[in-house]
TrEMBL record:
The gene is gmk. Residues 6-184 form the Guanylate kinase-like domain. GO terms for molecular function: ATP binding; GMP kinase activity. Gene3D superfamilies: Guanylate Kinase phosphate binding domain, P-loop containing nucleotide triphosphate hydrolases. The keyword Kinase applies. GO terms for cellular component: cytosol. It comes from Anaerobacillus arseniciselenatis. This is Guanylate kinase. It is found in: Cytoplasm. The lineage of its organism: Bacteria, Bacillati, Bacillota, Bacilli, Bacillales.
Length: 204
């Protein structure tokens, strides 16, 4: 019987909403979902590890990846490039394994064009005031950059209708449970399973 293709799960939302925190908690709870590591030209934050949190690249290296079609998607966001290496994603899906991409909104919309069968989840902050507070508490951005991120965030929230699901990140563990429920439901969708079960009937 043909192996069921894995799910491409795309989690995105405004900067500071907690995408990395939620993905980290999800990985600890559910080892069946693999994590796609993005490439970026931004500098590592404290505690971030190359090849685990991101592949940290120079601008020249990143632009070479763009030129050679080595990225599923890429975008320039607040002065830095972000992108998803394509080979690992396709290999994982073809092996029947689920993979989650934690990416910016611009990148998610590009992935949707190439993988319309993906599961697209928008991670929403409880409020804009809470979002600003989370960005400020990072202690890594200047006031101008924080204001820039908030302006971008408002524009991104307006693109929520491009997604399949919205998950509020009020409490991390609750957000993780909602995402896991979405993944289970998606695996049970008729259009993902109908060919598999038709084959069973034909064998009988």
């Amino acid at each position: 019987m043909k192996k069921e293709r894995g799910l491409l799960i795309v989690l995105s939302g405004p900067s500071g909403v907690g995408k990395g925190t939620v993905c980290g908690a999800l990985r600890q709870q559910d080892t069946d979902i693999l994590y796609s590591v993005s490439a970026t030209t931004r500098s590592p934050r404290e505690g971030e590890i190359d090849g685990v949190n991101y592949f940290f690249k120079t601008r020249d290296d990143f632009e070479e990846m763009i030129k050679n079609d080595k990225l599923l998607e890429w975008a320039e966001y607040v002065g830095n490039y972000y992108g998803t290496p394509v080979d690992y994603v396709e290999k994982t899906l073809s092996e029947g394994k689920d993979i989650i991409l934690e990416i910016e909104v611009q990148g998610a919309l590009k992935v949707r064009q190439q993988f319309p069968e993906g599961v697209f989840i928008f991670l929403m902050p409880p409020s804009l005031a809470e979002l600003r507070s989370r960005i400020v508490n990072r202690g890594t951005e200047s006031e101008d950059l924080i204001n820039n991120r908030m302006t971008v965030a408002k524009d991104e929230i307006e693109m929520m209708d491009k997604y399949d699901y919205v998950v509020e990140n009020d409490v991390v563990d609750l957000a993780v449970e909602r995402i896991k429920a979405i993944v289970v439901a998606e695996h049970c969708r008729k259009d993902r399973l109908i060919e598999k079960y038709k084959q069973l009937v034909e064998v009988e």
